[in-house]
Amino acid sequence: MSDFPYHVAGGAFTPTRRPLQLFESMLNAAPAALPATPQVTRRRKLWEIAHKFHCPVIGTCFDVAELRSLMKKVMHFPPDTTDFVLHTTAVGACESRGQLSELLQKQLEKRYQPTIRRFAAAKDTAALQALWQEATASGSEIPAALWATWSHPACDSTLEHAVYGDIHMIQHQIGTGTRADLKALKALKEDNRELRRQLDKARQENEALRSEKSSETQGLGQRIVDLRAELAGRDATIAALTGQLDQLRASLPDLKDRHGLLRRATDAEARSTALSARAEQQETEIWHLRQRLRHAEETINQLLAQEGSDETLTVDADCAPETLSGKSVLCVGGRSGAIDAYRQLVEQSGGRFLHHDGGLEESLHRIDGVLAAADLVICQAGCISHNAYWRVKEQCKRTGKRCLFVRNAGVSSFGRMISAACAEEN
């Protein structure tokens, strides 16, 4: 008796059994030698199909974990029972009707109901075979197609063995692919571990960043609340000030005119400030010009002092005393440094000296008075303003008063004019 509580298709599983003879009998036998499948008009139950087909049905249609869970419902077995022992036990139980075979039958019918309904449209073996080939070609729903084909009433012995051969080779291909898949799965697991490590690191960084941003967001939220409160306070202040302004405008109807006057006064003050600044600038320029003029006059006076002393001696020799007979001589213009020399020449000649600067600093209105008091006018044409020049010339012409014009403002030229006047008096 076998030590195992199960058996497989073709007989008991013993060490002396040669599986190859079993496959040879199934695959190499001529179709005519195969036992004829009984013709039925209804779909077959799991225990009604050939026992040698139970192994691929159980192995293809049930995952080992699912099979273990189903078998626990109807039998007891040690926890360390291998998957192979469970598989062969289930295969052996499908040979006859029982609790386990009925439970597996119910699961197959429930799980593959859509495919079963689709295969039910096949009315003969050829149509059923076409549906099976279509399923194997697409590679999808092979477990469902396997059960729907073998349980179909139109599935004869030839189609049964053809399906058995197809599923046998498919399982080999799946095994080969499984080895490649396992290798790829191992690499994928390594990648997955690395990706998980990176993901954990990214999650930690993200959590730290989220915590930081949360604190920052909380601070910004509080800042927004503070700003809104401040804005509300400002709005209230603006509203109050606007009300006060409206009241003030109502109490002062001419406030707009006052505002206009205030703007005009402000503009005038700005213009006045600009003019004052400009006047200060011009005064500064005038002061610098006067300084330059003073230095120039000092230089000229130094030069004329020597010239005047020499020329005075010459005049003294040429003109006898008292020759002007007390006449008033008006000098208009001339160099400021030579005025004393002019005065000395006139007084030494017996005359009375009068002077006007020709409108450079003195007013032109005063020139009329000194012209009326003068008996003789000597006009330094190069040292007076144009207005003074024409004014002297016009008045002397109108009154018939003698007027001598001198282009050179030197003391010698003035002395010659005095000498000429002395000669005419004599």
Commentary on this structure:
- This protein is mainly α.
- Among the domains are: 51-155, no CATH class; 328-424, 3-Layer(aba) Sandwich (Rossmann fold), CATH 3.40.50.10050.
- It is 67% helix and 5% strand.
- It has helices at 19-27, 54-61, 64-72, 83-93, 99-111, 113-119, 125-138, 142-150, 157-251, 255-318, 339-348, 365-373, 386-399, 411-425; strands at 328-332, 352-356, 376-380, 402-406.
- The chain is rod-shaped and about 185 Å long.
Number of helices: 14
Secondary structure: number of strands:
4
Q: So what's the overall shape?
A: rod-shaped
Please state roughly what percent of the residues sit in beta strands, choosing from under 5%, 5-15%, 15-25%, 25-35%, 35-45% or over 45%.
Answer: under 5%
What spatial order of strands do you see in the largest sheet?
Answer: 2-1-3-4
Quick rundown:
With 426 residues, the chain is mostly helical. 67% of the residues lie in helices and 5% in strands.
What descriptors fit this protein?
5% strand; 14 helices; 67% helix; mainly alpha; 426 residues; four-stranded parallel β-sheet; Rossmann fold; disordered N terminus; 4 strands
Q: Topology, please?
A:
Layout: H1 19-27, H2 54-61, H3 64-72, H4 83-93, H5 99-111, H6 113-119, H7 125-138, H8 142-150, H9 157-251, H10 255-318, E1 328-332, H11 339-348, E2 352-356, H12 365-373, E3 376-380, H13 386-399, E4 402-406, H14 411-425
Parallel strand pairs: 1-2, 1-3, 3-4
Helix pairs in contact: 2-4, 3-4, 7-8, 10-11, 10-14, 11-14
